[in-house]
User: Fold this.
Amino acid sequence: MKKLSLLVLGLALACNSSQKTVSEAPKPVVDPVPYAETITQDDLKEHLYTYASDEFEGRETGTPGQKKAVEYIKAHYQSLNVPAAQSSGDYFQKVPLEVSKVPEGSLSINGTSFEVGEDVLTFAQAKGNYNSVVYAGYGIEDGDYSDYSGIDVKGKFVLIKAGEPVDDSGNYVITGNMEKSVWSNASEAIGKKRDIAKEKGAIGVLYYDMLSFPRFQGYFQFMKNNNSGRMQLAADGTDEILIYLNEDAIKALKSDIEEDNVPKSISADIEMDITSGNDQIDSENVVAFIEGTEKPDEYVIISSHLDHIGITGDGQINNGADDDGSGTVALLEIAEAFKKAADEGNGPKRSLVFLHVTGEEKGLLGSRYYTDVDPVFPLENTVADLNIDMIGRIDPNYEGARNYLYLIGSDKLSTELHNLSEEVNKKYSNIEFDYTYNDENDPNRFYYRSDHYNFAKNNIPIIFYFNGTHADYHRPSDTPDKINYDLLENRARLIFHTAWEIANRPLRLVVDKAAD
Assistant:
């Protein structure tokens, strides 16, 4: 009886083992090429001749032309039965914006009045009388170094200067060597320094940057002369007061600021009478997605910006065929290719998010709203962002060699992503990758100038695909007839293949170069 029981048990285990082996047999590897080949010149051209037509009026953020653009994108996803990403079923992620009018008024320091737009610059309203400010040197807090040791800035204005500390040997204190840190990067450091001051409880920042002041002043005067204001997220509000001081203004407040690095409280008679009125603007991102079959809670984002710069003062329409009509229509076609794969039972293992952002031309506003205010999907579960911004033209450096593409950021956070990108290109596309603009010292600073940056700053690996600038950049002459549709096709297919590999690889991309 015991032997019979053991025999039966053995047969049962054998059957179960056999069934398990059959059920776990590896699926055949799916060839993505047939799906990539659905991305065609003809389809891209048909989309772009509509999307970058005069009917869309240059797609400036918040205008009727931009509303036509988002309706066009939405209709495409509806026609494919690609669902909206938001649980509400709405393809539109509302992005509340404000246009801050150029402020007027003055700032008085110890009895000397300085006019806004001349000696002081700000884009926020500032009113009140104060009898002191707190000088915080460079305004840096990084690792063991802090300019805020021993000072209390809560409820006060903080005076900060540009740059970073250098020791007696000429080494930068933060890095410990001759290499500058991010705190010497004017564009990035201002925001970081302002944010630290805010976290410490400061009500505003007075900022001295002798080298950058003329650039800020030029921007201010441009807005004033064109009766235009600075567009910003409504969530930013006007409570963050940042006032730039020129050399004359700083002399009235702290004449030895260049030599003195010691934080301290400074007695001063300061009167602020700066007024500004904001206009409310409604805009929207368009977000669609295909849910992953095995890892639905991990997300691969492919992004492009849907807006452009609208109509010139003399009535000419900036159609923005390359910027970023090319990225928009490429994204539509990439989504269609993935949907075809999903319909045939070959959907991506990870979820794919098709993100069309607004307000890029106004300061990366739509992507910043997604990352900083209302992520549709958790950032910690976001594997990568592949950002497409201008991939339909040839820049002057490649007039005789067309098959190229600038890649920016692929190696900044993830070595795996960079290597994957290179391998995919060699296998499917054979495009010459140019990393010129990936150089940290590139004066164009393109890494900081498109929507991928808002993901990168959150340590999400990114690739920015870019054909470079050309004579028609931000001009009415950026029209669909000048697009190289064969190149647009090949570049879009490359991005599809890259997204396919990221979405279907066994393990999530490793972030081995996370920023602080």
